[in-house]
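Thread title: Can someone regenerate the structure for this chain?

I was given the following input by a collaborator and told the matching structure tokens would be attached. They weren't. Posting the sequence so someone can regenerate them.
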Amino acid sequence: MYKMEMRNVYGYVRVSTREQREDRQMIAMEEVKVPGKNIFMDKQSGKDFERPMYKKMLKKLKEDDLLYIKSIDRLGRNYEEILEQWRLLTKEKKIDIVVLDMPLLDTRRGKDLMGTFIADLVLQLLSFIAENDRKNIRQRQREGIEAARLRGVRFGRPKKPVPENFVQIYNRWLMKEITAKEAARQCNLTVATFYRRANRQDKIHLS
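Best answer:
Regenerated them for you:
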């Protein structure tokens, strides 16, 4: 049985991109009866991990409060970050955490040394597996790209075709009859791209 002392109950929800939906996490918070005013939600891009609502929540958390999260990866982007946030919340803030997707990660269970040890061990194992999975995905992506390159697949935007009269336009620019900007316009290229093509043409003349 868990102690029924008065405590504030919070929930934290994070989606990593603005395209993702938070419905699944919000439904989970409603099921465990987290008050709406105590649910903190961050939306962010993969590159940006400045979590303003998470930081706001940290300031509100007091000893013995209870925090619900849907899954352990809501706490951080990688193995080290997840462990650091777990330590901050449980050791410094001294709150309880319940990870809804993993019932073993419930610090209300077994406040003795063995209960704490089991929770920490499960956390480290899950965090390692999650981080290892991410590394494997990135490795497979790199290998897939390299294999595609070996097959002759080209990546990036296709090159813009130059007009059939490029040499004529290039020669007019070379003779200073038109500006590079005008030459680029006639070729339907940016000025920078026109210069690159012009440099290649110079090399052809010199070879």
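The radius of gyration is 29 Å.
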